[in-house]
């Protein structure tokens, strides 16, 4: 079956760095998306990886290892507004997104 | 541009009643999707449409129906609501589908409570 595993909750300090891990098992693979979702709001796109390696976009970076079925989202210089849930979503062979339950990130001052 | 709009924002519905959740996008995207999001679970795909005039079933289609008469609108209908359909419903769209990895963009959601 298809499965996504991410930590349920993480806590970090303002100004610090945090890494949110995601492991996945899917039927086929067509890349992996990360979305951010603030409480009570819609998910918004953060990043997309289809090849192995690190993609950097400002304070956020995303890494992919296809052979290990593993990705992480790295957030640097954390700000209070980064308090949100982060959703890992690989795309399967049918080009459908398989969504994890998300990691709730709590930022403390 | 407005992007994707959904209506209503929230609704309380008596079990057994029918309801249509509305979704409209102004980005001229070909593909549209309906998801439900429940606490502790990932987003689950209910129905999708790759292009106007076509629809397909997702992971949890039972109890729901959709139509895609034109590019912009993708309504979701609950024919006879049950309490297990209490959820937050998100509509999304992407430029293309069916073999493409286009980013999906989400509407603000509809919070539905079935009593």
Report on this structure.
The complex is a heterodimer of chains A (109) and B (115). Chain A is 0% helix and 53% strand. Chain A has no helices and 10 strands. In chain A, the strands form 2 sheets. A 5-stranded antiparallel sheet of chain A has the order 1-3-8-7-6, with no helix packed on it. A 5-stranded mixed sheet of chain A has the order 2-10-9-4-5, with no helix packed on it. In chain A, a hairpin with a 2-residue loop joins β6 (53-57) and β7 (60-65). In chain B, strands 2, 4, 5, 6, 9, 10 and 11 form a 7-stranded mixed sheet that branches. Chain B is built from no helices and 11 strands. The model of chain B has no long low-confidence stretch (mean pLDDT 94). The chains are: A mainly beta (109), B mainly beta (115). Chains A and B meet through β5 of A and β5 and β10 of B.
Show the helix and strand layout.
The complex is a heterodimer of chains A (109) and B (115).
Chain A lengths: L2 E3 L3 E5 L4 E8 L6 E6 L6 E6 L3 E5 L2 E6 L4 E6 L8 E7 L12 E6 L1
Parallel strand pairs in A: 2-10
Antiparallel strand pairs in A: 1-3, 3-8, 4-5, 4-9, 6-7, 7-8, 9-10
Chain B lengths: L3 E4 L2 E4 L5 E7 L5 E7 L6 E6 L6 E2 L6 E3 L9 E3 L8 E8 L10 E2 L3 E5 L1
Parallel strand pairs in B: 2-11
Antiparallel strand pairs in B: 1-3, 3-8, 4-5, 4-9, 5-6, 7-8, 9-10, 9-11
